[in-house]
Amino acid sequence: MNTDKQKAIDYLEYWGLKEKPFENTTDPDFFYESYDHIEALERLFYIVEEGNMNFGMLTGEIGCGKTITRSVFKKRLSPLQYDVIDMENANLPFNFILLECIQKMSLEEFNPRLQDDELYYLLKEFKKLLKIKIVQRKKNLVIILDEAQQLSKEAIIELKNLTNITYDNQSYITVILVGQPELRGVVKSLPQIDQRISLRFHLNPMSEKDVDGYLRSRLKVAGHPDGALFSPEAVSVLSQVTGGIPREINRICKLALDRSFSLRLDYIDEEVINSIVMDLNKQDGKIHG
Ligand SMILES: Nc1ncnc2c1ncn2[C@@H]1O[C@H](COP(=O)(O)OP(=O)(O)OP(=O)(O)O)[C@@H](O)[C@H]1O
Ligand SMILES: [Mg+2]
Known about the structure:
Layout: H1 3-15, H2 35-50, E1 55-60, H3 66-76, E2 82-87, H4 94-105, H5 118-135, E3 140-145, H6 153-163, E4 166-167, E5 170-171, E6 173-179, H7 182-188, H8 191-194, E7 197-203, H9 208-221, H10 232-242, H11 246-262, H12 270-282
Parallel strand pairs: 1-6, 1-7, 2-3, 3-6
Antiparallel strand pairs: 4-5
The structure holds adenosine-5'-triphosphate (ATP) and magnesium ion.
């Protein structure tokens, strides 16, 4: 067996793991329900269940878990009740967003005619599909746009117009914008949208208690029997230097597990965390510490 492969197996065995615990993944299985993440999810469910709230917004600091929350939300929505159109990158003009929705809703390949009346034509097709696939089946359509801070103002206004479509005075579409903090500014500059956002939530970094829970949870999902690999002091330092941002925590923990494995330590202590932070700072890795 090649040595890298053997080393990876030894590493997992050494820590009692089945897979690596701190990869940057949006796999819902790795989701840890921190105080804020639970609240974000609850609010997202509320907006779709309520039915008449057409516009919601989930913002959050960079790397705090917006995208993984989006994946979990999507996974937990009942397919009997909801059709979900989920776009990872909303950096598209409205026509393309609409086209994407049509393609995801229709079973056959849809090739639009590229003419001046394209938007008219796309809207007509969209409404047709909405009626057949959503209204007639008594379902709701949820459109989730990630990285929505990149949407143009025109696209946001057009999305609002989409939520105006009703059948028998009932609305069937909920649009959820997910994005970095600047999305709040974009929306604020559009009063007609700002007033229609019935629900918003801002995801903050995790508290120290949640950092502890996060580490244990990720380790357990990765196969560790009890998730206790970090000393309380290590958790405390980690929480301070990362400011409670999950992506930063993953970055340092990955390195900490590697180093502690090389040193054959029994658990991860604060010295290891401090030495990694110092190394990252030397390389200008942007960790304050
Ligand atoms: N609640 C959580 N449970 C498990 N892992 C999480 C959680 N929140 C964040 N993470 C981890 O942190 C990393 C960053 O999360 P995510 O990509 O969802 O953040 P983001 O807010 O969408 O970031 P960006 O602002 O760059 O879009 C992910 O790889 C994920 O593994
Ligand atoms: Mg994201």
